[in-house]
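<given_protein>
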Amino acid sequence: MTPIGFSAGHRPSQQYFVIGTRRSADGFSRIATRTFNMASSADRDPRHHTQKMQKALEEIRTHLREDIQKVDEPQLKAMFETAAEVLGGLEKAFKDYENKNESAWQ
């Protein structure tokens, strides 16, 4: 079955799923849909995801460490430092998964 608006040979980059119907103010039923992007080959590569997560974790860790210098409260400084250390551990876990360094990832 070809989705409406597409020719038989065209593959859409998104999939549409009907999630229900509802009655609108004018009394007509409306079909509610949700759009899902189809995964590209890069999206299916685990390294793509591990590298994106490592980058995001590094950015947050850096931000936390920079903010330690900006706050005066010792407890908040300690919390920022602890959070930065935890994120560093998560970065390492993603890197170990990517490199298969731990026996759990082999």
Notes: The chain has three helices and two strands. The chain has two domains: 1-38, 42-105. Confidence is low (pLDDT under 50) at residues 1-7. Residues 42-105 form one domain.
